[in-house]
Amino acid sequence: MVRTRVIQTLFAYYKDADKTAGTARKELTKSFADTYDLYFMLLDFINELTAYAQRQLEEQIGRARATHSDWQPNRRFVSNRLAQQVFENRALRARVAEQHLAWDSGMAAVSDIYKQLIDSDFYRKYMEVSTCTYEEDKALWRHIFQYLMADSDTLMDALDELEVVLDKSNWTTDANIVISYVIKTIKRFKEDSTPDMPLLEMFDNEDEFRFAQTLLEKALNGHEQYEQLINNHLKGWEADRIAYMDRIILETALAEILEFEDIALTVSLNEYIELAKEYSGDKSYMFINGILTEILRELKNDGSFIKALTLK
Q1: Exposed (0-12), middle (13-18) or buried (19+): which is 215, by Cβ within 10 Å?
Q2: N or C: at which end does the chain have fewer Cβ atoms within 10 angstroms?
Q3: Which CATH class is domain 222-310?
Q4: What is this structure's pTM?
Q5: C-alpha to C-alpha distance for 162 and 191, rounded to whole angstroms
Q6: Which residues make Cβ contacts (< 8 Å) with residue 14, sequence separation at least 6?
Q7: Calpha distance 227→10 (Å, rounded)
Q8: Which residues of the chain are in CATH 1.10.940.10 domains?
């Protein structure tokens, strides 16, 4: 995610002639904060889905009373202990209030996922067992995020709308990664967890953010140098016909490979080839791999880059 953020920031920076390096730095910081807000937003989805289920249950109770039915509601889902702990978590409540996060514009996703939930086998089994443990309460929510929300088109549409309403970015891009963070958080809850239980930090460690900031600076400062290296190895390609995202990925890759001595060459190459597969054209990763290999081979031959010695 760190390298993705830098590439997205550089792409926006070079596409907008009015942006400054200072603006790019601020946007990089905001992009991390926006992703962190998505983490809280998705965690708060537990509360939204539970509240929606409660409203559906109350409507059923009302209909039963109107028809003098002796139907007895099953409150297991709305009384889920993990959901109650999430609702009471002070860090979540504070962040949601501070950033004005709300699902109002994304309720279509809440409704749709609820319908999928009540039709699922794991929900039916959960609701039908005679007794339910706390671990089974947790497992239900892990299944909801893993099987119903990951890769959900309805959720992506809702996040796309919410990005606009809440002035956020990258939510649709980051959704599945952040869902994995929510699942990790669910696993951390214990039956005796209190409302003061800490949630995940914005970064696994501060080194990640410092790496992103430094990588952005190196890419910005070395732009002309990296651009010239790329142009020198195009071999028949016209410089102005190279896909813009390909060029950004190449420049960022060169900044990392040439400026970060502690990162293995193979790690950097693999990371940027994967980014090309995800964010650029179908065959861009082969083009990017070829250009990087040629540049690094040249640097190896003139002795200016020690990591290039690993190239065959």
Answers
A1: buried
A2: C
A3: mainly alpha
A4: 0.80
A5: 33
A6: 244, 248
A7: 14
A8: 222-310
